[in-house]
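In response to reviewer comment 3 from the previous cycle, which asked for concrete evidence that the modeling workflow produces usable outputs, we include below a single protein chain processed end to end. The sequence was submitted unchanged, and the resulting structure tokens are shown without manual editing.
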Amino acid sequence: MDYTSEKGAKRNFEPWRDPKNETYNETEEQLLDRLEKEENEEHERAERDKMAELEEKMLDSKREMAIADALDEIRTRNARIERNEALGDETALAHVREEVDEDKLKAEREIEEAARRAFTTETGEKVKRLVEEDFSNGATPDPKPSDAPPSFARVKKAKKPLPNSLGIKKKAKPSLV
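The workflow returned the following structure tokens.
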């Protein structure tokens, strides 16, 4: 919309003839180049927008999966708690004890199996212990070890004087005689 002049007004600005704006003075080639450049920029911007949208959708789906997993875990825990409450306190305790006992038995079996594998050869023979015996003092080894448990009492060692243990020797003081 343009204003109309009432009396003696003169137009001093015409937007379609702005010398600063080169778009009105450009040739057809320049116009085509400029339009092609703008179209390429829009296309690149649309591609970036599509990639950003795709990444956002991917993050949303990951977040939804994490929420669904957490919700499923909560539901499972609540169902287990309700099942234990329905059984009663004593039966629930017995059920928990049985599970703990089963876990202990399973762990013991695994340890026994590992020990069996460790102490058998490739052919399936059991490995025998070789005991190195010290007969230098002329004593014969005891065929049966005593059933008394070993003593772990602390044994105090006699202390050596400090300067001697460090290898320091005191010099004799000269006498004044």
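The radius of gyration is 48 Å. We consider this sufficient to address the reviewer's concern, and the full set will be provided in the supplementary archive.
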